[in-house]
Specification:
The structure is a homotetramer of 144-residue chains. Chain A has 144 residues and is an alpha+beta fold. The first copy, chain A, is built from five helices and four strands, in the order H-H-E-E-H-H-E-E-H. The first copy, chain A, has a single domain, classed as Haem-degrading domain (Beta-Lactamase, 2-Layer Sandwich). A four-stranded antiparallel sheet of chain A has the order 2-1-4-3. Chains in contact: A-B, A-C, B-C, B-D, C-D. Chains A, B, C, D: Pfam families: HbpS-like.
């Protein structure tokens, strides 16, 4: 997966706005089924915003969390939860969250890759329970 | 308690996601007519993001500018250009741009108000020439 | 336009200065009973300051803690201690403190809600032992 | 050790909360006469907050400006407008506003000194026109 990620970064292909919007819509559909109000951010491979939507009534504090989850899974193109597994006390990258202006190391961030493994961005979801955020992010990535 | 919190946030005089999305779409239509690729950000009255879209190919450096224009016109609910007129060297609020985490004092930020004058947020546009950004922002606000 | 903007900010579900001042006074009375000197911050639902008072002799380092406790319980409208329970190593939102510009995840921050459940702000207290800070914050909220 | 530390903080030449509150009340009286809604911050000689009040309906963007005006006139114990005169393009300290985490160089910040000239803090006012902010700050300092 690391090799694929490195290759894709060289290629620097970014998902377009139409795709980002489709992913957000797909995620919101799942959020509504789960009865949660979430923020969804889609970023390019460098972690910069492509599209963002706050569902009405989503917690204000989750806004920044969604942005950082997306950024985390763009800069390190793995699920944000994987960063969390390695950044626990005693873990190999303990404290990595304080790098890159602040990462998020629990679930809800996912890299976005094309069928041939090229990473084209990342998505970050926050506002529900972590497992709900993950479900929304996974539903969104299926629309890629 | 969660439901109560969400309800109270709804009660704030903040434009909803549907409205924010309509404004962005209206702005993009004008941007396409002008042949420019812009970032459009819509924020609540406290300057926090409601929705954001980057048109494909928009300059990366304009992304932050759009976010800050929107934030500027939310925190000080006047056109961002008006801040610029007063913050020039020798002007009454010279240097105000360095407050509030960094404001933008040229055109492209506009407050969003309902017919009865209630400010419900702000919009920020960046990516074209300043007059193009202003035209896009004005077209967007007409969709309110 | 200025008048309209001010009016709309009033319309937000934010507690007013008179209420904020009454809460702070109530909290200080409890602090004096406990023999502690605390900082008390009251913020609006977006985490921005409405009123703040430092009791004479309160520790300087607790000032920022009080501000962040209030901000934490505004952005995530639950007691700040609840964030702490979930953000421990191995917890579901481990490391969330590094989001939103820095949160505080121990007791002393409480959301402020009206009888009908509308969140109108939050309070943050720091300067004593955590249980003392919590007692002061709880005494303050009873004055709402 | 705790008691000793608290005692020593008292010994610093810092105005106490009672004085800070009296100054804020005096400033607000003038603000009401002028028909403006302002934020008033009182800080100690190191620029740290002693007391703060936002009048209902004051512009959100002025909150940070008031805090920075007070901080500016504490760190450099002169009227904040005096910093502005020297920080214009071509001036002796051009760009000084970007030091100390961000200063404000227009009127509304004033140092607070006792009769014998000892600086005990500073006040910052924002929300009205600059001359109104200055009038409010001056009225407040007369209550010292």
């Amino acid at each position: 997966m690391l090799a694929a990620a490195a290759a894709s970064l060289d290629a620097m292909s970014t998902l377009n706005l139409e795709t980002a919007s489709r992913l957000i819509a797909a995620g919101q559909e799942t959020a509504r089924e789960l009865g949660v109000r979430v923020h969804i951010a889609v970023v390019d491979p460098a972690g910069n915003l492509v599209a963002f939507q706050r569902m009405d009534g989503a917690w204000l504090g989750s806004l920044d969390v969604a942005l950082r989850k997306a950024r985390t899974s763009a800069l390190f193109p793995v699920p944000s939860s994987m960063i969390g597994e390695m950044s626990q006390p005693g873990g190999p990258i303990y404290g990595v969250e304080s790098t890159n202006g602040g990462l998020v190391s629990f679930g809800g961030g996912l890299p976005l890759a094309t069928a041939d493994g090229a990473v084209v961005g990342a998505i970050g979801v926050a506002g529900g329970l972590v497992e709900q955020d993950v479900a929304v992010a996974e539903a969104a990535t299926k629309a890629l």
